[in-house]
DNA sequence: TCTGAAGACTTCAACAGTAAAGTTCGAAGC
DNA sequence: GCTTCGAACTTTACTGTTGAAGTCTTCAGA
């Protein structure tokens, strides 16, 4: 009776969760579940951490994603909304709205392509670039702290295993297209 | 010139992305970035895959999350909206709406606690339980496929490393509360 | 018993995302 | 040189989430 935290209980620990799965669904491989659950929890926490950091810069996580894509695109630092949407995994409509807001905030510019007036080109402003840089600085501090318990060799092995998993999903889901387990 | 895929380019590969980071932001440790980027890409892909599977059952990913929380809670399979919200990382308001929809669809029940009439209790229905089970079956197939390239020993090492990272973030963010890099 | 404070949930208004229809321009065929 | 098709983006209507304000109940103190 001392072990039920009452009706105000919070998220169970990872091990508690695995134990619960074994109780309710015997077919589950606990080793697999541990990897999968840890992955998704980690991601949630990282998302929260990034959100706090970008908030200090007065931008949202979503806006940072756009800035990252533009900088990573390289030299002219310009991309069309459709391309941006693909890179961020959004619908074109969402991209339109996002760009609207970011133009209003002075983070990016939007102009029509002179050679093809149906096309639009989004570019990064000085302010956008400097917010991006600040966010990167904060992010790298966070990421270094996150991995501080892993040796260099462990980091390498971890990265290698994760990319192996990633390759597996990407093959099966060519561009958010296919499906991993063919269920239809 | 043959290497720019034109204005219709899609998401760059992980390695291309890392190379771009090194070009634009030298302070970045490529090993760290590889881990972090792979984590977030993996999560996006997994989310897409789960979404497809639950869609086949006529429920959303969000609804599956609620069903999972209820089943994992154990025996009476009942939780309050506030507790559910904490476990899923949502605001109470979002939880209210989500439960509305799920009650309408017959996946869960909502009743007032007899002993404390300000409290509400959400329980899972037969149908909810069976959708949960179907979703779990599909998910385990997917997860097993995802990890198929890793040996048993590798899976263990991966799970162990990920939980070490998770512990690090959770310590720093006690309940989505604290912050990892103290930036204020 | 009454009153005030705190807790648990809901309501409301605003915002972000999606799907589908709409608009506009460019290019290919007649 | 029209016309039609298709591509790229935007608009519209709807769904789901958030933050803040509101309601209702319990509990502690006067």
From TrEMBL, chains A, B:
<dbReference type="InterPro" id="IPR000835">
    <property type="entry name" value="HTH_MarR-typ"/>
</dbReference>
<dbReference type="InterPro" id="IPR039422">
    <property type="entry name" value="MarR/SlyA-like"/>
</dbReference>
<dbReference type="Pfam" id="PF12802">
    <property type="entry name" value="MarR_2"/>
</dbReference>
<feature type="domain" description="HTH marR-type">
    <location>
        <begin position="32"/>
        <end position="167"/>
    </location>
</feature>
<dbReference type="InterPro" id="IPR036388">
    <property type="entry name" value="WH-like_DNA-bd_sf"/>
</dbReference>
<dbReference type="InterPro" id="IPR036390">
    <property type="entry name" value="WH_DNA-bd_sf"/>
</dbReference>
<protein>
    <submittedName>
        <fullName>MarR family winged helix-turn-helix transcriptional regulator</fullName>
    </submittedName>
</protein>
<dbReference type="InterPro" id="IPR011991">
    <property type="entry name" value="ArsR-like_HTH"/>
</dbReference>
<dbReference type="InterPro" id="IPR019885">
    <property type="entry name" value="Tscrpt_reg_HTH_AsnC-type_CS"/>
</dbReference>
């Amino acid at each position: 009776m001392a072990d039920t935290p009452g009706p105000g209980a919070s998220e169970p620990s990872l091990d508690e969760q695995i134990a619960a799965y074994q109780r309710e669904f015997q077919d589950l491989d606990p080793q697999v579940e541990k990897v999968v659950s840890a992955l998704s929890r980690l991601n949630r926490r990282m998302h929260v951490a990034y959100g706090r950091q970008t908030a200090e810069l007065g931008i949202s996580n979503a806006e940072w994603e756009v800035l990252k894509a533009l900088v990573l695109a390289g030299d002219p630092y310009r991309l069309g909304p459709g391309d941006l949407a693909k890179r961020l995994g959004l619908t074109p409509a969402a991209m339109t709205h996002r760009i609207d807001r970011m133009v209003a905030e002075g983070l990016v510019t939007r102009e029509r392509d002179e050679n093809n007036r149906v096309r639009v080109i989004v570019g990064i402003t000085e302010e956008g670039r400097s917010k991006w840089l600040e966010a990167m600085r904060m992010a790298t501090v966070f990421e270094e702290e996150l991995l501080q318990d892993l040796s260099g060799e462990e980091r390498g092995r971890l990265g290698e295993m994760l990319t192996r998993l990633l390759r597996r999903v990407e093959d099966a889901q060519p561009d958010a297209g296919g499906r991993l387990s063919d269920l239809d």
